[in-house]
Specification:
mainly beta, Lipocalin, eight-stranded antiparallel beta barrel, 1 helix, globular
Length: 128
């Protein structure tokens, strides 16, 4: 009986350790909600960086890389890319503000979020 109980406890503890906790997100919302509905959640736990991006027309979750103040979102691409090239979405994070350049110009045409009209999107950290 002791062996069974010890085996059960060891198995229970080992299976509990394999379950990874749900990320704890910091959320950023568009400072001008009339231009578009855009919410970004960022989570950094140990070496795992996870994001959630939600607009009126899409919802994406994946990993991101951070290099200084620049964040590059994996598996999140521009709504309207440059020709045949996929453009990864990136942003600048300063203090409590996440800033995107939403579209380019005639020499560098792209649109990250076609749901939004503004050239620059400033998202401010909020408590949800």
């Amino acid at each position: 009986m002791k062996k069974f109980l010890c085996s059960f406890v060891c198995l229970f503890l080992a299976s509990g350790c394999a379950i990874s906790p749900e990320p704890n997100f910091a959320y950023y919302k568009n400072s001008d909600p009339t231009s578009c509905h855009l919410v970004v959640g960022l989570s950094q736990e140990d070496n795992l960086y996870v994001y959630e991006v939600t607009t009126d027309s899409r919802s994406v979750r994946g990993n991101f890389m951070k290099n200084g103040q620049t964040i590059v979102f994996s598996d999140l691409f521009a709504s309207k890319p440059r020709g045949d090239f996929k453009v990864k979405v990136s942003a600048s994070l300063q203090d409590d503000t996440l800033q995107f350049q939403n579209y380019g110009n005639s020499m560098n045409p792209f649109t990250l979020f076609s749901e939004c009209d503004s050239k620059y999107l400033s998202l401010v950290r909020v408590r949800i």
